[in-house]
UniProtKB/TrEMBL annotation:
Name used for this protein in its record: Molybdenum transport system permease
NCBIfam families for the chain: Mo_ABC_porter (TIGR01581), modB_ABC (TIGR02141)
Spans traversing the lipid bilayer: 12-35, 55-79, 91-113, 133-156, 177-199, 236-255
Organism, scientific name: Gryllotalpicola protaetiae
Keyword Disulfide bond annotated: no
Domain ABC transmembrane type-1: 53-255
UniProt xrefs under PANTHER family: SULFATE TRANSPORT SYSTEM PERMEASE PROTEIN, SULFATE TRANSPORT SYSTEM PERMEASE PROTEIN CYST
InterPro entries with a match to the protein in the record: MetI-like, MetI-like_sf, ModB_ABC, NifC_ABC_porter, Sulph_transpt2
Family, per entry: Belongs to the binding-protein-dependent transport system permease family. CysTW subfamily.
Compartment list: Cell membrane; Membrane
Highest taxon in the source lineage: Bacteria
Gene Ontology cellular component terms for the protein in this record: plasma membrane
Gene for this chain: modB
Keywords: Cell membrane, Membrane, Molybdenum, Sulfate transport, Transmembrane, Transmembrane helix, Transport
Membrane topology: Multi-pass membrane protein
Amino acid sequence: MNGRGRRGYPAWLWVPAGLGAVFVLLPLIAIVTHVDWPDFGQLITSTSSLAALRLSILTALSSTVVCVVLGVPMAVVLARGRFPGQSIARALVLVPLVMPPVVSGLALLYTVGSRGLLGPTLLRLGLQVPFSTAAVVLAQAFVSLPFIVISLEGALRTVTETHDEIAFAYGASRTQVLFKITLPSLGPAFVSGAVLSFARSLGEFGATITVAGSLQGVTRTLPLEIYLQNNLNPDAAVALSLLLVVIALVVVLVAGQPWRHAALAELLDVFNDDPRGERSRERNTVVP
């Protein structure tokens, strides 16, 4: 047996792995087999369906931006910082992952609702958050934020600080090191975390319906439309469910393509004052 075979895995792992694959695939196959294919196009292009799809994509993109703006600093502080209660802070950041979605919605409602912690202040400022599109973005960002924090923090812990120390030795400031060295090294993890946050936001239901309700064109996202249609028109619910699965699958597949790393490197070079992408070409050049 060659070295590759010895470094492999036991053959019996195929059994639980196969069962896991069946466990995941069977429900998806069940959806496909129950789709009303002759009317599929009409079911997913109705006025309410298109409005829900448009709102879902818009709010998911908005919540992903919120997750990036808040999650990147949180990940850096948790991975590189040293402060009292750090383990507790990390656990609290991850709490939305294990909270039931309805509980997340109630927590948000008691935060920004008219009788919540921030409700009276928001009302004095003329801001009505609950049952608005902003509430949808808030709910999606709350449940999706841990995904990007986990991805980036894990990547930061595997990256040595050697280059950071060299930059400091040459007189670079902490901010320069952050934007020139630390963040560019997190490219793949950043993409993965952002994609996971977007996908989680796209499928959010429980927290959204609790804090935002289900108003067509305002707060009724695609998952809420599926829930409503399941009671009114099951064929439409199945068709929209398949559409949501396909969108999520496409997002994950596109984000996982190898070319994304090169494209991201080029983009980072532009932001690092290297418009011709010379450093990217250097990274991709094989030294003989």
